[in-house]
Amino acid sequence: MATLKQLATVIAGTTSILSLQASGLGSPLQSDFFRYSKNLDVLASTWVTLPADAQSDSANSTLVDQISLASQVTGSTRPYIPPVRPNPRRTQGSGTRGCEKSLPGDLVTLLIPSKEYAGQTTSGHPTFFWYLSQPISVPMQFTLVEPGVAQPIFEKQINSPKVGIMEVEIPKDRPELVTGKVYRWSVTLMCNAKRPSANPLLISWIERVPTSSTLEQQLAAVSSSNSSVQVLRDRADIYSRSGLWYNALATIFHAQTVHPNDPSMKDEFLSLLDQVGLTQVVEKERQDPAQ
224 CB contacts (<8 Å, ≥6 apart)? Predict the structure, then answer.
């Protein structure tokens, strides 16, 4: 079983590698191995195996401080700190059987913080994001379900998907996600109407968590700011540091709509994606700013 000493070793090693790289003493970090998101996954998976009595507020504070330091070393302006008690749920994906032609493996990328645990939100009607890398001639379907319940909470078919970042917000007239529950969401390519089970499918998870009094106080404090742009930035920062991935991503993404003439908002959105290892999406979005 993992111990706090083992956790400290992981954190120290991660921070040391990043520090060496920042000072120019280390070799270039390889994207497939030393990505910052991988370090977050290691930290999260190590933490979840700790005994309950070791997951104290003091240990939590140390973990947050160490990850914040690592974020500063990587140059992240909005550090995402994963939940210290993640709910393990592995993201799944099927192949491209059922489609008329072979499709690239990176055709659809779910914009999630990790493939190893459920991302968190405080929203009863959250927003979900994914990336489509090239045009397709078949519809896509988003589905949100509560495991063990036959009727989906929400389904939406997108008949003419556009290349780029796509979003689906759960309508207010649908049942709210229940605090403490983990839900499954998926994106399907509707290639084979006769055999739906053969359609390419990507699955991930979301957990609704309660809004703590500390979070409420932090959000209330920034809402008194005079600049609406700064309020959105501050709120996204609070959500990100609190491990609330879906809140943070939605706040920054919608800020682009509210302030379309402020390119820094998109930069911050892409920075958040880059921080958790969604580098290919970031690169494609920067190469084609019209998307």
Answer: none
How far is 126 from 254, CA to CA, in rounded Å? 12
Q: How far is CA 206 from CA 84, 178, 253, in A?
A: 15, 11, 18
Give the predicted TM-score (pTM) of the model: 0.73
Which pLDDT tens digit goes with each residue over 123-139? Answer: 999 999 999 999 988 89
Q: If you count them, how many residues does the chain have? A: 291
Q: Tell me how far apart the alpha carbons of residues 42 and 22 are, in angstroms, rounded to a whole number.
A: 21
DSSP classification of residue 117: B
Judge whether 192 and 98 are in contact, CB under 8 Å.
yes
Residues contacting residue 283 through CB under 8 Å, at least 6 positions apart: none
Residue 229 burial class via C-beta count within 10 angstroms: exposed 0-12, middle 13-18, buried 19 and up: middle
pLDDT given at position 290: 57
> Furthest-apart CA pair in the chain: how many Å?
58
Place of tokens 């998101």: 37
- Asked whether 203 and 145 are in contact (CB, 8 A), the reply is no
Q: Taking a C-beta distance cutoff of 8 angstroms, is the pair 140, 187 a contact?
A: yes
Nearest to 273 by CA among 126, 164, 173: 164
DSSP class of residue 120? E
Buried b / exposed e along 26-63 (16+ C-beta atoms within 10 A): eeeeeeeebbbbbbbbbbbbbbbebeeeeeeeebeeeb
Classify residue 198 by its DSSP letter: G
In the chain, the amino acid numbered 261 is N
Q: Which two tokens stand for residue 143?
A: 């589905």
- Distance between CA atoms of 271 and 216, rounded to whole angstroms? 25
Per-domain residue ranges for the chain? 4-74, 92-208, 213-287
> Residue for token digits 């192949």?
95
Fold of the CATH domain 92-208: Immunoglobulin-like (2.60.40)
